Each structure stands twice: as C-alpha cells, then as structure tokens.
Amino acid sequence: MTRSRPPARLVAGAALIAGCWPAYWLVRGGLSQELFFPLWLGYILTVDGLVEVRTGSSPLTRDRRAFLTLFLLSAPFWWIYEGINQWVRNWEYVTYGGGERHGPVLWHLVATLSFSTVLPALCVTAELLRSLPALGRPRRGARLPLSAAAPVVLMLVGAASLAALALWPRVTYPLVWPALFLILDSGNRLAGRPSLLSEAHRGRWDTLLVLALTGLGCGLVWELWNARAGTGWVYDVPGLNDAAHLFAMPLPGYLGYVPFAWSAYAYYQAARALLAAAGRLPGRLAGAAREPSAGP
C-alpha cells in the first residue's frame, strides 16, 4: 500500500513519545506517574501506524472497538501479577527526588490506567513483527506430543506453581511467569479455543516465536523507560541481584518476558470467551498474533 503521508496517529504517537519521554525522566516525585500512560499511548499509536504503513491495515483500523477493549482487559491482567507479587516481593515501586507520592487511592487509579497499556502494546508489537518477511510466514516443525490428559496435567502444574509461590515465595519466584500461562492456555485447549498448545501440537511454532520476541521487545522498552523514571520499579530477585544488569533488570530476568507474552495471549483468548458468553464479544483482532484456529 502506498501512502503520500504517514497516518495521523503515527505522527501523534511520535509527538507523545518525544514530549513525554524526557518529562518522564526529568520530572521527580509522584507527578511522573501520570506520564506513563501518555508515553505508552504514544508507543501504541506509533507502532499501530507503522503496521498500517507496512501492511495497509492495523489492529486499530480493522476493529476500533475490539482494540479499545484491549485497554479494558489489560489492567485486570496485570493486577493478577501485582497480586502474586504480594507473595514474592520481586519488585516494588519507588518515587525519586523527594517529591510527594500519591495517596493510596489515587496511586491505584493512576496505576490501573498505566496497566491498561500492556495488552495493546503487546498486540501492536506482535503485529509489527508479523509484518517482517522473516516472521510473517508460517513456521512448521516437529509436532509437540500432546495426549488428551496433558492439558489437565499442565493446568494442575500451573495451580501447584501458584501454591508453591504462596508457600515458598523466595525459592519458587520464577514460577510467577509460566504459572498463569499453563493454567490459561491449557484451559483454552480443553475448551476448544485458540491455544499455543494446540499450535505446537500441529507443528506450528510461528505464533510462539512472534510472541516470545514481542515479550522481549516490549520488555526492553519497559525497562529502558523505567531506567531513569521519577516513579518506577526496582527488583529484588534472589540469586540474580548480583548478576549483570541491563537497566534495573538482571539480564536473566528478561527471560520472564517470554512466558509473560504467551500468558497475555492465553488471557486474551479466555477473556474473549467470557465476553462472548456475556453477549459482549468484541470484534476479532486476528492480525496481532495471527490467531490460530481452535481445532486440535
């Protein structure tokens, strides 16, 4: 598709990044927390515009209502991890520069708005990666052996992982990232919904690969922008605190972004089913990860 000028949202998104990124790093105190949402909104609009430039369509242009639904679904998704973090205490939020931090009610409201950007950011990034020739074609390989009982077993492993996190958080903390994926994706497989287990069982590995790269790419940007933020997060990761760091994150910690992106995909498929049951199903966002069919 040939365009004489870039989409307006690409320009608006780039302007938001250009204005909010320096402010996010320079503003001290609790006020910097409000800059997270417009900064990541700028990222989302920019990448969505780039997808349209490359492919002629984008998640936002194909179905605006479905895309906006991602913002509503996103905050509950990340609050699950915040709840688990009350056990493991792997990260905490800090405010620098001596400014006043928001009170608990306002802090949680602003945090919820910030968390609403997670799924849209992953969605547009996955689709941008899909627009690249090396990642846009199906990848077939060995089929993952998967018995009828395997999804049930994997769901139980995921549930046991959550129990282990509650009982021995400082030892089992790496299970934070695969636990939710095992529960949700196995449940999707059992319910006949699109699942990454079904993809691997058919020998289709492209969606898993794209989502893995999506998690790593978004994780790198999250950590970059957090590096000098006035209000940001710091890590306490037993056994890794002395490892080499890239920004605030120990390098091995970036591996957690891979199952995190897979979990986001599984969560989205499960949430779509709940919305369908409630008669409020949004349109299909097929382009983000080239949703696989629901068959075995």
Task: Give a description of the structure.
This protein is 62% helix and 5% strand. It has helices at 8-26, 36-55, 59-62, 64-88, 104-115, 118-130, 133-136, 150-167, 169-172, 176-191, 196-201, 206-226, 257-277, and strands at residues 91-95, 231-235, 245-246, 249-250. The strands form 2 sheets. Strands 1-2 form a two-stranded antiparallel ribbon. Strands 3-4 form a two-stranded antiparallel sheet. Strand 3 (245-246) and strand 4 form a beta hairpin. The chain starts with 7 loop residues before the first helix and ends in a 19-residue tail after the last helix.
Please give a quick description of this structure.
The chain has 296 residues and is mainly α. The chain has helices spanning 8-26, 36-55, 59-62, 64-88, 104-115, 118-130, 133-136, 150-167, 169-172, 176-191, 196-201, 206-226, 257-277; strands at 91-95, 231-235, 245-246, 249-250.
